[in-house]
C-alpha cells in the first residue's frame, strides 16, 4: 500500500530525513518510535506533502510521486490517498462534531448536505459519539475530540490513515478511548502509520514497529519483539531510558 524510496528532507543545512526507505502492506499497522528530533513526524508529514521532501519517491496505492519534480495534479492525487489525525485534534472550533466531519465532503467533494450528514452520523456511531453529534469541540473531552478527528479522517475514505502522536495530548484515562477506536480500525484492515511515544500503545496496536534516530530507520520488526527484545544498541538505550524512573531532589 505504501512504498517510500530514498526519501530526503532538509530544513536549510539540517538534514532531518536521510535516505529513508520503507514499505507498508495493505491492512498493516506500523508504529514509528524514537527520540524527539529523530524525524518521525517529518516522515509522516512528507507522506501527504504537508512537508515537501527534497528527494526520493513516494507511492501510496497506485499513485507515485517523485519528490524532485511533480505537478499539482500529482500532488493532489497523492494527498487524496491518505488522511491525517493530529496530536491536537485540529477541529474547527466553530463547528459541531457532525459539521467537522461533513465539511470536507460538502466543500471539497461537492456532496449534498443530507448525504454527507448520513455518512457523518454513521461515523460518529462507529467511534461511539452519536449522542455528541451536535456538540462543539469545547464541550468535548480530549478523547472525544480525537475520536471526532478520526471519524473526520475516515469520512474521505482514505487508503491510509496517518496518526501523529494521537494520544500524547490526552489525560491517561482518556487514552483507552482512542486506543479502542484504533484497535477496531486495525481489525477492519485499515492501513495505518502511527507516530507515538507510548510504547504500550505501540505494542498493543501495531503489527510492526520502526525505530528512528537521527533521520534514519535504525531497526524494525514485529511490535512485541521490538519493544521487549530490540537487537540494536540505540533502540535498547532508548527503551531503557523510557523505563527508568526519574530521580530528583529539591
TrEMBL record:
Its membrane topology: Peripheral membrane protein
InterPro entries in the cross-refs: AAA+_ATPase, ABC_ATPase_HisP-typ, ABC_transporter-like_ATP-bd, ABC_transporter-like_CS, MetN_ABC_transporter-like, P-loop_NTPase
Gene3D superfamilies per record: P-loop containing nucleotide triphosphate hydrolases (3.40.50.300)
Molecular function GO labels: ABC-type amino acid transporter activity; ATP binding; ATP hydrolysis activity
CDD domains according to UniProt: ABC_HisP_GlnQ
Keywords: Amino-acid transport, ATP-binding, Cell membrane, Membrane, Nucleotide-binding, Transport
Annotated ABC transporter domain residues: 2-239
Main location (coarse class): membrane
A Pfam short name: ABC_tran
Record's signal peptide: none
Protein name: Amino acid ABC transporter ATP-binding protein
Lineage of the species this protein comes from: Bacteria, Pseudomonadati, Pseudomonadota, Gammaproteobacteria, Orbales
Amino acid at each position: 500500500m505504501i512504498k517510500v524510496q530514498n526519501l530526503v528532507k532538509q530544513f536549510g543545512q539540517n538534514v532531518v530525513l536521510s535516505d529513508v526507505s520503507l514499505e507498508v502492506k495493505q491492512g498493516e499497522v506500523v508504529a514509528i518510535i524514537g527520540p524527539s528530533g529523530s524525524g518521525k513526524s517529518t516522515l509522516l508529514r512528507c507522506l501527504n506533502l504537508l512537508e515537501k521532501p527534497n528527494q526520493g519517491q513516494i507511492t501510496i496505492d497506485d499513485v507515485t510521486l517523485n519528490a524532485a519534480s511533480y505537478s499539482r495534479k500529482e500532488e493532489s492525487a497523492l494527498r487524496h490517498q491518505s488522511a491525517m489525525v493530529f496530536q491536537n485534534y485540529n477541529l474547527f472550533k466553530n463547528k459541531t462534531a457532525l459539521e467537522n466531519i461533513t465539511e470536507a465532503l460538502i466543500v471539497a467533494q461537492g456532496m449534498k448536505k443530507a448525504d454527507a450528514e448520513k455518512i457523518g452520523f454513521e461515523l460518529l456511531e462507529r467511534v461511539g459519539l452519536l449522542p455528541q453529534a451536535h456538540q462543539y469541540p469545547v464541550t468535548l473531552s480530549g478523547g472525544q475530540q480525537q475520536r471526532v478527528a478520526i471519524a473526520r479522517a475516515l469520512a474521505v475514505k482514505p487508503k491510509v490513515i496517518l496518526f501523529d502522536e494521537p494520544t500524547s495530548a490526552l489525560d491517561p484515562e482518556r487514552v483507552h478511548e482512542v486506543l479502542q477506536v484504533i484497535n477496531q480500525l486495525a481489525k477492519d484492515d485499515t492501513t495505518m502509520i502511527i507516530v507515538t511515544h507510548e510504547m504500550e500503545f505501540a505494542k498493543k496496536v501495531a503489527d510492526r514497529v520502526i525505530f528512528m534516530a537521527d533521520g534514519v530507520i535504525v531497526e524494525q520488526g514485529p511490535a512485541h519483539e521490538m519493544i521487549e527484545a530490540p537487537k540494536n544498541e540505540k533502540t535498547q538505550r532508548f527503551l531503557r531510558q523510557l523505563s527508568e524512573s526519574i530521580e530528583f531532589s529539591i
